[in-house]
Amino acid sequence: MDWSDHSDEAVSSLQANLLLVALAMILAVLVLLMFHLPSLDLDMAGAPCIFEIVAINHIDEDTHTLNYDSRVTLRYNSTPTSMDLSDPIDLMRWYLGTPEDNADRTTEYAKNDLSAKFYRNDEPISARIPTMYAHEFIQTHHYGVQTMNGEGSRWYPGRPITIDFTDGTFRPGDVVCVEIYSNTDGRLISADTYTA
User: Fold this and answer.
1) Which of 18, 46, 70, 113 is the most buried (most CB within 10 A)?
2) 32 and 63 assigned to the same domain
3) How many of the other CB atoms lie within 10 Å of CB of 147?
4) What's the pTM value of the predicted model, to 2 decimals?
5) d(C-alpha 95, C-alpha 156), whole Å
6) CA–CA dist 152, 140 (Å, integer)
7) Residue 125: its pLDDT value, please?
8) Which residues cross the membrane (predicted)?
9) Shared domain check, 80 and 26
10) Sign (positive/negative) of CA torsion 40, 45, 47, 48?
11) What is the tens place of the pLDDT at every residue in 126-165?
């Protein structure tokens, strides 16, 4: 009996099965990545990052102790970020042909026309921020936020706004997302994601 013909067949079948299992695992990982990256949807939709999170502080400004202070500083970013093809999200945007951020970064925004929604690890937080104008914010029924500061009634390029959330809102390692909306028409103006 000649065994050589049958052993070649068995090796080919084994290699084919291993290749199919490897392809199935790669596809499963790609699908999981799509479901576990909340910023992917924002970036794919082309929402520019005009107002970016530049810092989340966990140290109390008075006692200098760790109390998970949750002070978030946003800055009007006057320069668009370029695509980084080593970043999986930017690589996906480039592959799908999503245009780069071409937002107008010279506009002065009326802070009382802007509202914010924050998310922690894909979940919306219970803070209510109906205006980005600190003077008017004091008079609102705001929940989950202790203070807000920022100069003037208009948001200019390069200028910051700091929002001091209730202590413990954000902890190191949390993925924090901010969406800034126009109160006039409900339009999403800016979105950014930052790891605390």
Assistant:
1) 70
2) no
3) 13
4) 0.66
5) 33
6) 17
7) 94
8) 16-35
9) no
10) positive
11) 888 999 998 888 777 778 898 899 888 999 999 999 999 9
